[in-house]
UniProtKB/TrEMBL annotation:
Pfam families: Pribosyltran (PF00156), Pribosyltran_N (PF13793). Its EC number is 2.7.6.1. Belongs to the ribose-phosphate pyrophosphokinase family. GO terms for molecular function: ATP binding; kinase activity; magnesium ion binding; ribose phosphate diphosphokinase activity. One of its GO terms (cellular component) is ribose phosphate diphosphokinase complex. Residues 147-267 form the Phosphoribosyltransferase domain. GO terms for biological process: 5-phosphoribose 1-diphosphate biosynthetic process; purine nucleotide biosynthetic process. The lineage of its organism: Bacteria, Candidatus Curtissiibacteriota. Signal peptide: none annotated. Residues 5-120 form the Ribose-phosphate pyrophosphokinase N-terminal domain. This is ribose-phosphate diphosphokinase.
Amino acid sequence: MNSPKIFAGSSNYNLTKLVSQKSKIPLGNIELGSFSDGEIDVWIKDDINNSSVFILQSNSTPVNNHIVELSLIADALKRSGADKITAVIPYFGYSRKEKQNRPGEPISAKVVADLITSSGISKVICLDLHADAIVGFFNVPVIYLSALETLAKRIKKENLKSPVVVAPDVGGVKRARNFASYLNAPLAVIEKHRQVSARDQIEVLSITGELIGDTAIIVDDIISTGGTITESAEVLKKKGVKKIIVCAIHPVFAGYAIKNIEKSPIDKMYVTDSIDQKNLKSKKIEIVSISDLIANCLIQEL
């Protein structure tokens, strides 16, 4: 039986390399390319017959390419004789479509889960899904990790005095409450209400919970365009909060997200490296690595 290896997809090589170093599991020799028409080409160069292997791939931009690439790597490993194939998916794309909001829509997260596991994957390791229900979409065992404690440990180093953890919407209360428990801090929630005037519907944000102290920590799972987070920061600033910190797990940073964050009242933002940020240029944003979290999980799987 050959020794275990980690194969890197093209989405997040830097994180894969860190996980390999910390887990002492060597990187597999894989060649990734594409044909002139955009079709993805995969070649496994190692002898992995009867071995346990890991694939690390985030379903980040370009999302569809990375999902197909993950599936093709899994199929190539299966055809090369791998005994057990575990997909490590730090960021699971399409996770915001875990249910039908209206008739005629797909449940995209379920489709992607089926696509990935049908390629020969025997186990999935994922991180802070947008909805916990997605775990049930996979027909293979799932290990569900959370980066909240990792982010909380980084926040503790700041020695903040009496911070308040804030959920940016009602849907994120459970996540914010868990984060608050790590800091032993109180919780506040920003709620959206619609007020109907004579001509229009106006959306108003209100805060449930007491804003004590000088610092508010907004906790969220995904930052896409940054609209929800920056809007929440504006409300907190108007309420007299002196320092606003954001902790988010998946930095999608779509469109003008970085510009929106730079112009906002946010003082500091901490995000993980679940999505590669090699081109990030912002003094406000700090990357907190989840490599230790994933490495420890892989060690336990061997």
